[in-house]
Structure formats: structure tokens, C-alpha cells
Amino acid sequence: DVQLQASGGGLVQAGGSLRLSCAASGFTSDTYAIGWFRQAPGKGREGVSCISHNDGRTWYSDSVKGRFTISSDNAKNTVYLQMNSLKPEDMAVYYCAEYRYCTAPARSWGQGTQVTVSS
User: Fold this and answer.
1) For 106, which DSSP code?
2) Could you write out the DSSP letters of every residue in 31-98?
3) ∠42-59-88 over CA atoms, to 5°?
4) Residue pLDDT, tens place only, 62-118
């Protein structure tokens, strides 16, 4: 089974930065993508970013484009989400998820990590 462990959330002031990490394991194929979605209280899930394992292509939501950067360290089986210029509206629980492709629905996800942005 695929296992995903997210970490790195915390409290930051608006304009600040955080880096989330996702340790991933258990893949039996090279065709997959790792990404992040978030969920704020009372709101639905919102896809944030994704990176394809086999070709490194990335995807970002319009709301984070230019502020967030996703990257992967295949040797460590870890995906990172560098979040800069954080805004109060970025506050949510962030989940690391596994996809067949970045444009497909999430197939599995791990426990989320809370990101709190104070204004």
C-alpha cells in the first residue's frame, strides 16, 4: 500500500514562508504523481500543486501560482512544497496525496498538516 506522511505545517505570519514535506513509499509502478490539496474549515477540498514522478511535470492552482513551488527528491522519496508570501486565505489543513496523473483525482492521501497564517 502507498503510504504518505506529511509534515512541516505550523503558524506563520502573513507574508512568511513554510516548507511542507511528504515522505512517500509503497509504490509498485513508476506512473504516479504526488501532490497536495488543502481543506479549510467549512470549505471543500482545493487542489494546490502536483508533480509527476516519471517526468517531473508540475501543476499549480491559480491561487498559489508564483508563490508556491513543488519539488521532489527521488532519492529520499520525498516531495516538498515551498510556500512563500503566505496569505490568511492559505490557512487550511494540507494533505499530501497520490495520483495516477496530476489531472486525475487523488487515489490516496495521508494525515494532513495544519498551516495557520496570522494576519
Assistant:
1) P
2) --EEEEEEE-TTS-EEEEEEEETTT--EEE-TTTTTTEEEEEETTTTEEEEEE-S--GGG-EEEEEEE
3) 35
4) 999 999 999 999 888 999 999 999 999 999 999 999 999 999 999 999 999 999 999
